[in-house]
Structure formats: C-alpha cells, structure tokens
C-alpha cells in the first residue's frame, strides 16, 4: 500500500513537471482521438495537397481524423492481398482515402469515375472481416445491379483467394446451390437470385458484417429499392455499409440515408454528373440513314483489329443483331451482348472480347455497368441512351485505369432532344467541344420532389474540400 502511494506521488510530480494539470480524484481520462491512416502523426499539409490534386472532398463527422494511405504498405493488408496488388504502383485516389475510413469501421459512400479502382477499394478491406471470423456463414455480401458486374467482382475476389460464390439470374441454380454448400465467406449477387435462394433457406446472411452496394446509384433506383431493403434486413444489424458508385444524384442520396449510419462521403471530382476527363468525347449530329456509313468510316479510322477494341452501344436489343450483321458482312469479327443472349453466350462473348479474340462488341446498356476491361480504346454510341447517367457509364468503359480513350456519339434531333442540354453540360464540364446544335437546347424543367432525410441533415459535420481558389 505504501508503495502504491509512493508511485501515485511520483506520477503526480511527473505530470506537474511536464506541464500537465494536477489530476482530480474524480477526473475521467481524456478520450483519445483516433487518427486513422498512414499519417497518424498528423500530416495535415500532405493530406490537403493530396485532396486538392485529385479534386476530392470528404464529408461527415470526424473526417479530420482520417489521412490517406499513400502506399500499399501503409494500408497494412493481410499477406494474401499481395498477389492482387503486385502489378500496381500505388493506391488510386479513391482507394487511398477510403481504406482508412473503412478500416475504422465507418459506413462510407465512395463516388469516383469508372475505372478508378472502386472494386478493390471495397474488396481488399473486407479481408479482416473474412479472416477474423470463425463461423462458417458468409461474412461479406456484395450486391450488383447486373450479372456482368457481379461476375467481374467475383473475378476480383478470386485474386484474393477467398471462398466466394457468385449468384445471378439467367443461369441454372444447381451449380450456385452447390457452391453455397462449400460455406463461402463472400456472397456476390444480383438481388433477385439472392432473395430467391435466401427465401428457400439455402443462403443465410445473418452473420454478414460487411455489406456493399456496387454501382449504388443503380441499386437504389426504383427497381431495386425494395429488394435491397429486404436483403439488408437479413444481415447482421451491426453490419458495416459501403456504397460505391460513379454517379450520385440527389434522389439516390436521399434514399441512401435510410441504409447508412453516420457515413463519411468521399467524392473524386464534382458531385455533379461528370465524365472521365481522359475520354475524348465527340458528339456528332446525324440522321438515321447516315449512321451505318459513319460507323464503318469510324471503324476504319480506328484500325480495328490492330490491337484496338471497340464497344458499340445501341439502345434496343433488336438493334444489336442488325449492327452485328452489318459489320460481319464487311468482314469484321463481332460479338453481341443483349437481353436475348443466353448466359453461356454472354459469358463466352465477354471472355473472347477480354482476350482480344473479338475486337468489336455490340451491346445494349446491360453491359455498360458490368464490363471492367482496361484496354478498350473506343466507345461508339450508335444510338444515345435514355438518361445522362447511362451516357456517363457507357463512355466510362474506355480510359480506365489511368489510360485515355475516345467516345463518339451519334445524336439525332428530335429523337434525342431530352438529352441535349445534359449532354452539352457534360461536354463543357469535361473541356470537350460542344456542337452548336446542342447549345440550342434549354435546361429541363425542374420537378418537385418530396423532402426527405439527406446525409447533410443527419448531423452537423465538417466538409474538407480544396480547389484552385484555396489560398491557405
């Protein structure tokens, strides 16, 4: 007892000598402020420069305590991640900033251009959830809007050497049920098939601690809201929620708030709809009868077949076989991807296109959000999509992984007039030439929307953002 009293006196004397206030008997220890990321010592200047360089913003409570992981070593992933990252020099901006936030267990919204490394942005940090759990039930669930995107995410998880299953409709259930019986740690799925298997008692999500919505804007539109809500109701209530996307409209943000707890939102570039600035965009005013001739001229210009790959987008599935037939008749090797393709045909076409055996793919928008191939040089919009969000995703199939690419779009008046103003704005924002005809379109009428909870209304939170006008 005397020794304890002596130790307390020594600690008190030491505190006073070091300039600390005497500790009161009922004083509680000060709560430690955790600083996550490689710069735990507090390199605020480096973070500020990094965010400014990459036009990034961070919003949410406690953003000031997170610092980027500038190297893979600083991210401190388990050894089995080494093979997946060995061909990359450093994390992409969205990875560098999101990993410390995810590692701290926070819910997150990550908004970044297509091809920016979002898949590994959520896949790598899921490893601790997998490796640290003892139960045999799935620990991670990744929801995707299309089977193509689900399959691509599955390929990325294969590189991490974890037991995972990919579930999607349009394919026999037998093999998927067999895979579920191997006790996978990760379930990657489209909502419809996953609900079907869960309702049949074949998949138990109750131990999932890490839930991801990939292409979250699409997952939360009207067609997917209820299935997503049902699936998230099946997972562990204490789960961590991650949403990654290339676009983030206000309507989606309002809905997303009901699935998130005190999230941090990370944005690379503008929060408005913006195109990848490395894509050289050309919008050509044209008539229907001139499209075939111009398409053939462009393919000749691109020297297709000389290690050059092209995706040609059409709006309706009935148009895909027509364009495919036109090009095959001119001697081109072509594949098609649309709603009437069988699953086996779709998988074979994507595999051949990825290997370069098929240099041209004609596709409907079903492929726009599911293809993740780094070396697509050109995108041609034979017909414009219905929404500007789909336009952004289409042209985002090129210029991936830091590369450059071209996107050439055929725009018809009056058929495409609803996209006129939006397209002109996307071109201007990306520093691309705007055809005079597009300048004539006025902004669309503003629709009144019911006010609901927004991330900015959850709680007052700081926003870290730097632009060229920042003088500090």
- Return the CATH topology of the largest domain: Rossmann fold
Strand content: 5-15%
Query: Do you know the CATH architecture of the largest domain?
Result: 3-Layer(aba) Sandwich
CATH C-level category of the largest domain:
Alpha Beta
What is the radius of gyration computed over CA atoms, rounded to a whole number of angstroms? 25 Å
Low-confidence stretches: 7-41, 447-462, 465-472
In CATH, the homologous superfamily of the largest domain goes by the name P-loop containing nucleotide triphosphate hydrolases
Number of helices: 20
Broad structural category = alpha/beta
Mean pLDDT over the full residue set: 84
Sheet with the most strands, sense and barrel status: 9 strands, mixed
3D shape:
globular
Tally of distinct domains: 2
Distance between the termini: 55 Å
Query: Biggest sheet: strands side by side, in what order?
Result: 4-5-3-6-7-2-8-1-15
Fraction of residues in H or I helices: 25-40%
Number of E-state strands: 15
């Amino acid at each position: 007892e005397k020794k304890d009293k002596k130790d307390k006196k020594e600690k008190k004397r030491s505190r006073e000598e070091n300039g600390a206030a005497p500790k009161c008997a009922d004083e509680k220890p000060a709560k430690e402020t955790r600083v996550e990321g490689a710069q735990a010592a507090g390199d605020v200047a480096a973070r500020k420069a990094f965010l400014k360089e990459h036009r990034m913003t961070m919003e949410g409570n406690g953003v000031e305590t997170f610092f980027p992981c500038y190297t893979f070593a600083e991210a401190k992933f388990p050894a089995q991640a080494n093979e997946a990252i060995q061909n990359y020099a450093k994390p992409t901006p969205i990875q560098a900033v999101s990993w410390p936030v995810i590692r701290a267990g926070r819910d997150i919204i990550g908004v970044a251009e297509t091809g920016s490394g979002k898949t590994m942005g959520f896949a790598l940090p899921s490893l601790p959830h997998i490796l640290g759990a003892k139960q045999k039930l799935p620990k991670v669930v990744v929801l995707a809007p299309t089977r193509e995107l689900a399959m691509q995410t599955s390929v990325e998880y294969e590189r991490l050497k974890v037991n995972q299953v990919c579930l999607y409709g349009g394919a026999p259930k037998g093999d998927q049920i067999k895979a579920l019986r191997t006790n996978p740690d990760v379930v990657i799925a489209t909502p419809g098939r996953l609900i079907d298997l869960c309702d049949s008692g074949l998949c138990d999500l109750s131990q999932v601690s890490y839930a991801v919505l990939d292409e979250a804007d699409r997952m939360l539109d009207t067609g997917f809201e209820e299935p997503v809500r049902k699936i998230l109701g099946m997972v562990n209530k204490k789960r961590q929620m991650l949403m990654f996307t290339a676009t983030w409209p206000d309507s989606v943000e309002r809905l997303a708030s009901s699935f998130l707890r005190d999230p941090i939102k990370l944005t690379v570039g503008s929060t408005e709809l913006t195109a990848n600035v490395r894509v050289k965009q050309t919008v050509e005013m044209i008539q229907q009868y001139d499209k075939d001739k111009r398409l053939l001229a462009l393919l000749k210009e691109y020297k297709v077949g000389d290690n050059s790959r092209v995706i040609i987008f059409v709006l309706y599935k009935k148009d895909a076989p027509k364009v495919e037939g036109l090009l095959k008749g001119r001697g081109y090797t072509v594949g098609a991807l649309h709603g009437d393709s069988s699953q086996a045909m779709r998988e074979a076409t994507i595999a051949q296109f990825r290997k370069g055996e098929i240099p041209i793919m004609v596709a409907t928008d079903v492929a726009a959000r599911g293809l993740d191939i780094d070396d697509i040089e050109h995108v041609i919009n034979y017909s414009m999509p219905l929404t500007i969000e789909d336009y952004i995703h289409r042209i985002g199939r090129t210029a991936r992984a830091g590369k450059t690419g071209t996107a050439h779009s055929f725009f018809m008046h009056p058929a495409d007039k609803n996209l006129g103003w939006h397209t002109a704005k996307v071109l201007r924002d990306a520093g691309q030439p705007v055809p005079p005809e597009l300048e004539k379109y006025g902004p669309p009428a503003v629709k009144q929307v019911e006010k609901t909870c927004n991330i900015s209304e959850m709680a007052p939170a700081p926003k870290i953002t730097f632009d060229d006008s920042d003088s500090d």
